[in-house]
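Note to self: user wants both folds in one dump. Writing first protein now.
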Amino acid sequence: MSFELPPWKIIEEAHERIRPYIHRTPILTCQAINDRVGSEVFFKCDNLQKVGAFKIRGATNAVMKLSPEIAARGVVTHSSGNHAQALSLAARWRGIPAYIVMPEDAPRVKKEAVAEYGGKITYCRPTVADRQITADRVQMETGATFIHPYDNDDVIAGQGTAAKEFLEDQPDLDVLLAPVGGGGLLAGTLLAAKGMKPSIQVFAMEPARVDDAKRSLAAGRILENESTQTIADGLKTNLGERTFPIIAKLVDDVITVPEEDILPAMRFVFERMKIVIEPSSAVPVAPLLTGELRFPGKRIGVHLCGGNIDISAIDWGSIPPMRSC
């Protein structure tokens, strides 16, 4: 595949563009996790970002780049939640309408947040095809600009600002772990991290039940998920035409995480770090806690991508303790 990587400069420009709107999220550590893992682990807490997720970075960059004439017609997207919230808020900051297509089974807490941020919701059946068909119809009816949740150059650049901040604040990281769904965060992370520190290793983590990234890299082409049955609802989507070549060229490896390890890892973070994360954030944490993934003597960075979770929907008593190898 012939592919020219986007320049590092797009991350810098995106960061300057969105800086007035976003939080520079903190980096936290936890001695209990360091002791269990046997390495120093640093957590970039985009669960504490505006809208509770990293998605505000890419959505804001994309919305603020639109010309006044195009922006006036509004923006449209399809999303299970975090990008929907982010685009709704970014559009509100710009004073334009946001038309949001959401699957009927999206988490309640995310539906409510989209409405609170002013997004105009249209529901669809919970399939990738139905999302796009419905979004195309809404775009045709409104004339709004479609901003893809992850397969968009401006979105990818915006997401990369998290890794830029991470390495500016913690420049001696050896390893960076990030979850992967559609690949916007991972692609942006790779561009930023490898642009700033070529020696850093970047590993992607995905639920074993939605392992399209692992299989796609092995096949050399984009493959779809054979199932979407994972508690990590933000990681159900397939890689995109823009994200796939960046990931294929730069990622060190993709690690799959057993479904049964995700909620115990989330609960461990709740109890030991005293912060709220969603299941998608727990995916890169789980293999460290179980011991499936070890980096002796290395300084490990983990991107906690979001904290939007319907607390009432979790049966805490049924979540087993975090297992060890």
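First done. Writing the second protein, which came from a different request thread.
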Amino acid sequence: MNGRDLAVEIIERVDDWQKRYARWQSDRGANATNGDIGNAYPFVKNQHAPFSPARRALPMLNLALISSAGAYIDGTNPFDTSVSAGDFTFREIPSQIEPEDLRFAARGYDPAAVMADSNSLVPLARLFEFESNGIIGQLNPVFWSFSGFIPDAARLVDEMVPKILERIKRYEVQAALLIPASRLCHQSVSLIARAVELLGIPTITIAVDKEVVESVRPPRAACYAGKLGSVAGLPNWPEHQRRVLDEALRLIEPMDQAGIRQLTVALESEVEEARGER
């Protein structure tokens, strides 16, 4: 499937979206810097979602992580956060990397949380814990990182998504966890999730902006009342991160159709924090 055919599958009525995007870009798109897309941005609107049922139990799956936080290895080229349409490149990073070797090109979100604790957006430590205790079969040896502030959704699908899919197939990934960082990142990761699911690979997208995921329709979304910039759990609160990730990942296997599920973790964590148990 070439980039154009893929775009038609991932963005319904893609030609109509491109017209809406061109109007927005003419009005203010060129000024969409520093993470500001404004209220008029034309989010993708899909009516349906591709869906692939899990064919193996979670403890048997090779799980891949895809993060839109703009993570890159210290000393390498960062993502370009100045381009109005977005940066259409991605990084393939060893999952065993030390947290202090990661840097973040943050656009559209406050990087304070991820700077304090990378697990709030790139939860490698938590996922290795899940591997060791048998919640997942294994964490894929590399994860994929990109800067998810990409207003031009069609170019994202045309240019970047086929390349990520090629790498996912090469690593024989069996399930994928996608974590957005900003509001616009929710659109970007949802589109990638739709593409991955078309490969027959089940996905789960963690979300804190339900409105965007309801519009873009990733195959499986796990929503909770979290915060942009720390979607995988609050920084330096491992138990909160474990609860968010555990509850979300356990949705992969039982879901038999596309949909959005609400997590209970937020309510439980608020009660604990009120009791001083954090």
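Dump finished. Worth passing along: Residues 204 and 220 are 5 Å apart (CA to CA).
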